[in-house]
Design brief:
The chain is an alpha/beta fold. It has a domain at 2-171: Vaccinia Virus protein VP39 (Rossmann fold, 3-Layer(aba) Sandwich), CATH 3.40.50. The chain is built from eleven helices and eleven strands. It has helices at residues 12-30, 34-43, 47-56, 73-79, 99-109, 115-118, 149-159, 193-203, 219-225, 246-260, 267-285; strands at residues 2-3, 9-10, 64-67, 85-89, 119-121, 134-140, 160-171, 177-178, 183-184, 232-240, 291-298. The strands form three sheets. A seven-stranded mixed sheet has the order 5-4-3-6-7-11-10, with helices on both faces. Strands 1-2 form a two-stranded antiparallel ribbon. Helix 1 crosses helix 2 (34-43) and helix 10 (246-260) packs across helix 11. The longest helix has 19 residues, at 12-30. 37% of the residues are buried.
Length: 303
């Protein structure tokens, strides 16, 4: 057994078994070593925690749902910090066969009690929970894989409490990077899957079947989606730009959190929010924001 930087315990046997599951994808789509790709996923296990950490302090005992737990790295990271969280992951459905079983194994290796109660076999479109169950519902790089984004967002809003928040992070396909294929992308040009398939096949020699398993998520799509989410009270988008603009992205996300919970911002803070928004929108126009975050609040209960 070995302990990773994120305190998640894994065994070489477990990594080897995951590498077998990822072998075809890594060879034909990503062109990387599957064991190294698995280790990268482990290092990224705290991404979900970093995403929602600023929101945790707003609840005394937050109850959290992770939509799309994958191999369970993020879920394990939360549970080892005694945070009340449940995850969902499809059991044995393409293209992620075997992930649910390996995630249960990972939780058991890390001495998480009753792992089957912490990770449930389900889809984002059909969450097995009653309404108003969770304070925070989130996902990291999941909505680009679901069968129906609108249905998944509707379900997230259904199960979140009226004073809760839905936070989804996903890639921006109007940027110059495609993370699954690990290649440069052509924003605005490759919006058609026909052209995208030709691009990955002819320019990079990659298998094109995985294109059919992706939703080309963009900020504009979610702005158009808002009228079709009747339970959504407010939807805001925070763009992410990497180095050297990551500080601007962080400030913008922090301002967005304060807006979400009704904090009164000073004039200086309001100007900072407007300025960071405009800078990030300009960077987005030029394809320099590889991912974005959607933050939704739910309409309050009617008395």
């Amino acid at each position: 057994m070995s302990k990773t930087q994120s305190d998640i315990v894994v065994s070489e046997e477990w990594i080897a078994s995951v590498a077998v599951l990822e072998e075809k994808y890594c060879a034909e789509v990503r062109h990387v070593d599957p064991r190294e790709d698995c280790k990268l996923l482990i290092r990224l296990g705290e991404a979900g925690y970093k995403l929602i950490k600023p929101y945790l302090s707003h609840y005394s005992s937050p109850k959290i749902l992770e939509m799309g737990s994958g191999y369970g790295f993020g879920l394990c990271y939360f549970l080892k910090r005694k945070i009340d969280i449940i995850g969902v992951e499809p059991a044995n459905d393409a293209p992620f066969e075997g992930r649910f079983k390996k995630a249960i194994e990972l939780l058991a290796i890390n001495h998480i009690k009753h792992p089957e109660s912490r990770l449930l076999p389900s889809f984002g479109e059909f969450l097995p929970f009653k309404e108003n169950c969770f304070d925070i519902v989130f996902s990291v790089s999941v909505l680009e894989h679901v069968g129906d984004i609108k249905k998944s967002m509707s379900e997230a809003l259904r199960v979140v409490k009226p004073d809760g928040v839905v936070i989804m992070r996903m890639p921006n396909y109007n940027s110059f990077r495609e993370g699954h294929y690990n290649i440069p992308w052509l924003p605005y040009i490759l919006g058609s899957k026909k052209y995208a398939k030709w691009y990955v096949r002819s320019v990079f020699g990659r298998a094109d079947y995985f294109i059919d398993q992706l939703n080309f998520t963009t900020p504009a799509y979610f702005r158009r989606l808002l009228p079709h989410l009747p339970k959504c009270h407010r939807l805001r988008i925070s763009l992410y730009a990497g180095f050297p603009f990551s500080r601007i992205s962080g400030l913008n996300f922090e301002f967005l959190r304060k807006f979400t919970f009704g904090f009164r911002l000073s004039c200086r803070q309001r100007m900072g929010f407007i300025l960071t928004n405009q800078i990030l929108r300009l960077l987005c126009f030029f394809g320099l924001t590889p991912s974005f975050r959607v933050v939704c609040t739910k309409k309050p209960r009617r008395l």
